[in-house]
């Protein structure tokens, strides 16, 4: 039996990782954007829940979340080295460097510019399993009246997930430390 191992990977010391995701409410034509910025120890350095009224495509919504997450990090002065999204096609469009037409092209071009400004920052795909915190924040965004920006904190709706991730990290680091001393 093959088991897929899902493991959190920290950014390098002194830098940060951004995860983004979206939730769509088709009936109200609203998109919830969720973003979370973590340091090398998994600590929450920033999070944001934002709601956008739009009839955009799901890909454009994911690109919007990435762009707003990058903007949030840039404004707060957090040096990103990694941006993660579970929207594989969008990540590939951004990485391709090609000019893209239509609605999503505007987002992709701006994202590419911000990545260039933040030299050394990479974007990559992450599985939905490893993007739960950003996803839960995006679901929360659909229920709020005003955009929410938190520094060194996170919304209460993701507290249980954060505690479980923290517990996992403590156990993982302890196991690997013990393993390396053998």
Characterization of the model:
There is one protein chain. Helices cover 41% and strands 24% of the residues. It is an alpha/beta fold and 182 residues long. The chain has a single domain, classed as Ribonuclease H-like superfamily/Ribonuclease H (Nucleotidyltransferase, domain 5, 2-Layer Sandwich). Strands 5-4-1-2-3-6 form a 6-stranded mixed beta sheet. A hairpin with a 4-residue loop joins strand 1 and strand 2 (30-38). Helix 1 runs parallel beside helix 3 (103-117) and helix 2 crosses helix 3 (103-117). The model is unreliable at 1-5 (pLDDT under 50).
Structural class: alpha/beta
Strands of the biggest beta sheet: in what spatial order? Answer: 5-4-1-2-3-6
Named CATH architecture: 2-Layer Sandwich
- CATH names the topology as Nucleotidyltransferase, domain 5
Oligomer: single chain
Q: Give the end-to-end Cα distance, rounded to a whole number of Å.
A: 28 Å
Mean pLDDT: 84
The best one-word shape is: globular
Number of strands: 6
CA-based gyration radius: 17 Å
CATH class: Alpha Beta
């Amino acid at each position: 039996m093959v088991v897929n191992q899902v493991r959190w990977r920290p950014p390098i010391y002194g830098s940060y990782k951004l995860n983004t995701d979206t939730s769509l409410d088709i009936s109200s034509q609203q998109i919830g954007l969720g973003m979370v910025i973590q340091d090398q120890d998994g600590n929450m350095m920033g999070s944001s829940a934002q709601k956008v009224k739009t009839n955009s495509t799901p890909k454009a919504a994911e690109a919007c979340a990435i762009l707003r997450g990058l903007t949030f990090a840039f404004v707060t002065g957090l040096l990103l080295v990694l941006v993660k999204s579970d929207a594989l096609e969008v990540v590939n469009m951004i990485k391709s460097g090609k000019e893209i037409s239509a609605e999503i092209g505007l987002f992709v071009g701006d994202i590419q510019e911000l990545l260039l400004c933040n030299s050394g920052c990479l974007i990559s795909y992450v599985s939905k399993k490893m993007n739960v915190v950003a996803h839960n924040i995006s679901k929360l965004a659909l229920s709020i009246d005003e955009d929410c920006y938190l520094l060194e904190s996170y919304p209460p709706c993701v507290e249980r997930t954060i505690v479980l991730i923290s517990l996992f990290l403590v156990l993982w680091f302890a196991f690997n430390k013990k393993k390396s001393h053998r």
